[in-house]
Specification:
The protein contains no helices and 4 strands. The protein is mostly beta strands. Strand 1 (about 10-15) and strand 2 (about 20-30) form a beta hairpin. It is globular and about 40 Å long.
Length: about 70
């Protein structure tokens, strides 16, 4: 697991459907410590299904599987 440095950092967050279509992309600024970030401006509505979320910075990336249920 990567650790966050002691300064603010820019991250790119992209959500892809399993067929490879980009569903949402957003740039996030994070600071050290625990925090919550909301994706979208309240307009992000994902239909039920599976997605891949890729979070990356200039030097690394991580992916997770996201399952949306009705």
């Amino acid at each position: 697991m990567n650790s966050v440095s002691a300064k603010s950092e820019e991250l790119n967050c992209a959500i892809y459907s399993l067929d490879g279509r980009l569903v949402h992309s957003q740039r996030l600024t994070i600071s050290p410590g625990k925090q919550k970030n909301q994706l979208g401006n309240g307009d992000l509505e994902l239909v039920a299904g599976s997605y891949v979320v890729i979070i990356s910075n200039s030097s690394s990336s991580s992916s997770i599987k996201l399952i949306v249920q009705d």
